[in-house]
Request: fold
Amino acid sequence: MEKHCTDSRVKGVSTGTTILAAVFDGGVVIGSDSRASVGEEYVSSKTINKVIQVHDRIFCCIAGSLADAQAITKAAKFHLSFHSVQMESPPRVMAAASVLRDLCYKNREELQAGFMTAGWDKKNGPQVYVVALGGMLINQLVTIAGSGSTYIYGYIDAKYKPNMTKEECLQFATNALALAMGRDNASGGVAHLVVVTEKGVEHVVVPGDKLPKFHDE
Amino acid sequence: MALANIFETPAPGFNFDNAGRNAALEGLFDGGNTPKPMKTGTTIAGVVFKDGVVLGADTRATSDEVVADKMCAKIHYISPNIYCCGAGTAADTEKTTDLLSSNLTIYSLNSGRNPRVVMAVNILQDMLYRYHGQIGANLILGGVDCTGNHLYTVGPYGSVDKVPYLSMGSGDLAALGILEDGFKPDLELEPAKELVRAAIQAGIMNDLGSGNNIDICVITKQGVDYIRPYRESQYKDNRKMKYKYRPGTTTVLTKEVVPLKLEVVQETVQKMETT
Reply:
């Protein structure tokens, strides 16, 4: 395995990735690609799941070192479930984001993972939060992260509109992921999309060959 | 800090006191040769089939260019329904799997339940993550429990992935080619064994660190079939194993006896007190 990890800044398996989350009218769409890489050249998994459920209506997308991200989301799941037992009610999306932010900030020297938290709660409805590498927490309507995100900033800025319908938002997210996967070598595989609304959670998987094509001759 | 002449029993657990020193030394060497721990250059593979999981491994353990062990067992027992193949540093894979196996046995006895594969994976992940990649163990965990047939990979930094087929070790790319080509969901037993055998064979043929025989372990709900070796290497040597020759094997041609005359030059007496 050592010959695969040459000069990567992230030790071990990394999710060089494209992740995004967007708020629409009544819910959120959170999505990612499915590629995990080791070093700069070996794809260690084509089907890794980067959209992780941390509570009934709260999901989390991971970027960076896979080992760090999995360890943090495990700790976060535990904290959230304990918190919701103590409060006797489902946790707020803000609570989930804060738990992740605390873990990232307190251990910022050792960790190399960034997150996006999105979900629905009764008080504030659909929300999206981003927790960056050092522990910064920001609330946004639409956000993208990962190595592939640089290729779609223009698309997001031009095409995102607040209060879209669920179908429009799903199409927007699929297009964005397809564009990023088409240009970034560290992103690829299938597109995992999760739609969270008050009524429930819907998981949509778009296989690589069914992704929209943009002048791909 | 203990005094140099007092022997202290070592604290339990791993000791990483030298990690800082090693990092500093690497800087001094300036890209030259630093001492490296022994690895099992290896090919291991696993496949989920209709009724269970098939795990396979080669049996060569190398120490630089010399083959240290030609019949090394790389498929380790974890519990009656879970086995684990290990690649990476030989000592680390042995000890990690031993620790996991003892912990799971205690859990089984306490709870009266058979352990689930996902539990073994979680314990391994926690442990390897805690040591931040210092434990060089790349493991393929396969088993059958009440929730189905599972195959997981655990990396040295603690990353986990659940997959239907997998190969690891220095021969992983060669084996992966065979697996990618031949894998289909819900294979029958014989084709699954043949697929794993072919994958390990590819690793043995194309990787210098893998070789000798092929071990296969089939885990199903009914039980475990650990076939060691499944295929023996065609390149076996004939060793006598006994290098003692009976007297008279070599003919004596001539014999000459020369007595040595010794002269006493000096004599000293030293008294010893033996009271």
